[in-house]
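Pasting as-is:
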Amino acid sequence: MEFGSLGKVSVATPGTAVPLSPVPLFVRGFRAEAVVAATGRVYLGVAGLNRTTKAGFIKQFAAPAAGVNSTSDAIRQDGYSGNHIDLSKFMVDADVAGEGLLVSYWRV
């Protein structure tokens, strides 16, 4: 199994969702986690993600409470044996410019 990281996937302009990967990247599974220093909400979804209407919505990550050193995460894994999840099909949006998600993945 191969493990990798996309690091922090940031949103330059709130309301304009960006893909987790700018190019097709097929993986077995991935983990997305809010950044501890975030001050606003961050959203994970698919094409058409709209943070206002929640269209294309998978998960909302709230800003962590003061003094908390961990955040919530989302883990998605392919139920089969291959790399069937394309990270370029998942989107992230944020309430605050420059915020986003920490993304790691694994593939076989």
